[in-house]
Amino acid sequence: MLIYSNEEEDYVGIFGQLRDGGEIQNVGLKNSYFRGRNYIGGVVGKNNGTVENCYNTGNVVGDKWVGGVCGYNDGTNNNCYNTGKVTGATYVGDVCGQNKGGTLTNCYYLADSETNNNDGTFGKTAEQFASGEVAYLLNDSKSTDVAFCQNLDNGERPMRPRFWTAPTEQFTSSQTATMQIPIPIIKMRSPATIAGTTTVSAGITTAITPSRNRSTAYIRSKTPVSCIGLQRL
C-alpha cells in the first residue's frame, strides 16, 4: 500500500507536477492514500502535459485543487478513470479538481447515478463499472487493439491498462497465444541545466515512487528492471 501524508505539502501524487511536453501513459494506482495541501491528485498533482490511459482507485485528500486523477488540469487527460474517494475544500473533482484551459476526453468516475457533466467526464454506477461498460467506453467502443481489459468472469476491478492480441488461426492446448501489455511511459522535461526531454519506459513489474524532485522520476522494483528507451532527445 502506498501512503503519503503531509498537510503542508503542495503538488502531491505519483507525480507532483507534469509540465508542458510531458506525457504519462498506462499508469494505475490502487490501495493508496495521498494527503497534501494544494494540487493533490492520484496520478499527478498539477498537469500541464498529457495524461492518457491512467486510473486511480485510492483515497486522495487535500484542501484546494484535489482530484482523483489530477488536482489541476491545464493540459490533456484522455481515457482515464477514478473510483477512489476524493476529499477537499475548494476545487474538488472526481477526475480533476479544476480543469482550466485544458481538455478532458472520455474520462469516467464512480457515481451513484449515470451523469454527463458536459466537460468530457461521465459518472457511471458500480454496476456499469462491473459489467465492462466503462472498459468498453475507455477503449473508444472498440473490442480489438484496446488499452483496457476487464475480467468479467470474477468481476475483477479495476480495469487495468492492457490489451490482448489473439492469433487469428486455431491453436491446440499445446500452443500458446501472446499477451501484450502496455508498459508505463513517463516523458518529462529535463532539469533546467539539461536541454531536451527524458523518456522513461519500464516493465510492468516496476513501481514508480513519488519524489519531491519534480524534474525526476525514480523507478524501483523488487526484481531487476530493464529500462528500454531511456534517452535524452
What is the makeup of the main sheet?
7 strands, mixed
Taken from the alpha-carbon principal axes, the silhouette is globular
Assembly level: single chain
Secondary-structure-based class equals mainly beta
- What's the pLDDT, averaged over the residues? 74
Radius of gyration: 18 Å
> In what range is the share of β-strand residues?
35-45%
Please provide the count of β strands.
30
Spatial order of strands in the largest sheet: 18-13-8-3-26-27-30
Q: Give the proportion of residues in helices.
A: under 10%
Number of helices: 2
Distance between the termini: 34 Å
Low-confidence stretches: 162-182, 189-233
Structure commentary:
This protein has helices spanning 126-131, 133-138, and strands at 2-5, 15-18, 23-25, 28-29, 32-35, 38-41, 44-47, 50-52, 55-56, 59-61, 64-67, 70-73, 76-78, 81-82, 86-87, 90-93, 96-99, 103-105, 107-110, 115-116, 121-124, 148-149, 160-161, 163-165, 178-180, 185-189, 197-201, 207-209, 218-220, 231-232. The protein is mainly β and 233 residues long. The strands form eight sheets. A seven-stranded mixed sheet has the order 18-13-8-3-26-27-30, with no helix packed on it. A six-stranded mixed sheet has the order 4-9-14-19-21-20. The chain has a four-stranded parallel sheet with strand order 1-5-10-15, with no helix packed on it. The longest helix is centred in the middle third of the chain and has 6 residues, at 126-131. It is globular and about 45 Å long.
